[in-house]
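Hey,
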Amino acid sequence: MQAITSLGCKAYALLNTTRAVDFLGPLALRLYLAPVFWMAGTKKLADMQSIIDWFGNPDWGLGLPFPTFMAWAATLTEVGGAIALFFGIGVRFMSIPLMATMVVAAVTVHMQNGWLAIAEGTGIFASDRTAAAIERLDIIKQIVQENGNYDWLTEHGSIVILNNGIEFAATYFIMLLVLFFIGSGKLSIDHLIIRNAHCNK
């Protein structure tokens, strides 16, 4: 038992040598999320009136209250959040409204579609909806194979049906939650500010 404990301690000590580059974890999260939110926010900025209409319309949109405020809040949060994530400034603070945005997106847009972002016919997250989508996908493939150049069309990827479930929103939320607790890492403006101000991290 003592030998196993000693081996465990040595293995743990070996893992601790990676602390010298522990900034890579939060940096990777930040650089992954930054373009996601930048593209989402700038796409909204390109046609804000359509976004406001979509946010407010109860028939074909989200039916949210105060759609102008909500649309601008979501858009500026995404754009500002992308900039904050990229440069590593105010990341713990900015993670809060970004997480809220992901919760709103998950509840209002994606939850009705289940978990999966891309429809699958089998698996623990498959549903009647995604199974039905796969039936339609098979028909689409058959039509394309009979009437088009299927090999050329699928050369760079398979044909799929978007299910638009909560998978991506939940994943981004979890990544932001991690950043909220661990911060932006040593390779960030936040770290420089905290170090120079002698703040308690």
